[in-house]
Amino acid sequence: MAKAIGRAVGRSVRVVPTPIWLFMKAARMAVGQTGPVVNIALGAVDKALTETLATGRMTEAQKGALNRETSEKVERVEELSARARKYNLPAAASGPER
């Protein structure tokens, strides 16, 4: 993606990991504009539930699942675990694999 953007702007650019909220702020996206993202997520859930009802499994739906690394980034597992340690709280597990 950085190469494509670099070609478009006529100079080299580098990838900088950015939290989604900061990306949306820089792109001037308001919270109200995230509706399509929610609809996409709800559509994926609907397809998974429909598949489960029809076949008893989620074989096709699981192909679109996030890998563990990406899931932990999205859920900010490290940051939340650090806060839990700081305030002497148990780290809450989320997801079936934790």
Report on this model:
With 98 residues, the chain is mainly alpha-helical. The protein has a domain of 68 residues. It is 59% helix and 0% strand. The chain contains six helices and no strands. It is extended, with a radius of gyration of 18 Å.
Features of the shown structure:
single chain; 98 residues; mainly alpha; extended; 59% helix; disordered C terminus
Distance between the termini: 32 Å
Main sheet makeup: none
Round the Cα radius of gyration to an integer and report it: 18 Å
DSSP strand content = under 5%
Task: Show unreliable segments.
Answer: 94-98
Tally of strands = 0
**H/E series:** HHHHHH
Average pLDDT level: 76
Q: Which structural class should the secondary elements be placed in? A: mainly alpha
Helical amount: 55-70%
How many helical stretches?
A: 6
Overall, the morphology is extended
